[in-house]
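re: that chain from earlier
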Amino acid sequence: MLPHLNEKKMKKTKATFLILFLLNPICSFGQTWLQQSSGTSDTLYAVQFTDTLTGIVVGSNGTIRKTTNGGINWFALSGGTSQTFRNISMLDENTGFIVGGGSTIRKTTNGGINWFALTAGTSVYLNSVHAVDNDIVYACGSNGIILKSENGGINWSTQSSGTTNRLRSLHFINSNTGCVVGDQGTVRRTTNGGTNWFAQTVSIAGPLTAVYLNNASNGIISIGYLNMAFYRSTNGGTNWVSQYYGSDNSIRDIDFVGDIGYMCGDVGNFYITVNGGANWTRQPMGVSNWMNGLSFPTENTGWSVGAHGIILKTTTGGANVPASPTNLVGFAISTSKIFLAWFDNSANEQGFVIERSVNNPNNFILAGTVGQNTLNFIDSTGISPGNTYYYRVAAYFGQQLSGYSNVVAVLVT
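^ sequence. v structure.
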């Protein structure tokens, strides 16, 4: 509904207006995640794509699957074991590592066609691996073990974590600085390549399931098992602050592309942030599976894997595309200002973009943006009598833009 305008003020303006509606079809919500055929019913625990075409998934019973066409087809690879693979870290499309049960470590240098066994001198279950570069590789697992290789996995040393709790996830921003998390609220941080691991304090003694350091300042830790929260650091992991994300289901993996972040978890729960983790929005995947891993090679294109061999793909960044605004109207409120208002059909927009074209309905450029649930805008930039100004509005969430509203034309005289 348009706000009430002072009738006396409207009579005083010398501006007149012409409103034209050029109707566009309303954009409805589409299916955000599409299921792909993995060719297996084994539980999948991790996925990594090196670009939008090439990716590898790993899981129980030694399962390895690869695609080179964006998931249209997945073919089986052999890791030479029936042990469960829990995590994968690919440096590029050719070189990568996988870890899992029975202290299993495998390395490929030809895109997964062949995997050769590495020996780390331990017998514990390994849960996570991160290849920082061609030489530096870290892994962690049960009994508080942290392993490091400085020669691409040929040799491994055991580092002192200061705990015997199971370590579930680790992540590094460079060869020296990283975090590892695990059971009983365990958080350890290093800034010297693991020579020392310093204990960090969080307010919960439950299992911590995943960690991601987005940059030298920003990091996210997810919490398992019905805790409805995660931890965020804005000072490189020195301090961690609990944040509520609105669900009692576990989060199991985290990924970031710049400041845009993603978390997946139980019963198909999925969360998105567009501001480095300060705020998260829930966007259900439409499945009830436990989703264990995800990978986003770009802001919009990503995959998630989970129980019963499920593989899901999104090309919308996991977000439901907002519904298009409608009923855009506009009129001049002076010789230098135009008022616009519209109807909001979306339940998940972060805001609206307003575009303008001058004396031509085909050359639209950005005129401004407004926040969530704001349904009007005053354009006061470069407005002058004798020109016709065409406007259209779209809702946005992250990188996703709805369809446009109808176009309205305002003649200022």
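The chain is about 0% helix and 45% strand.
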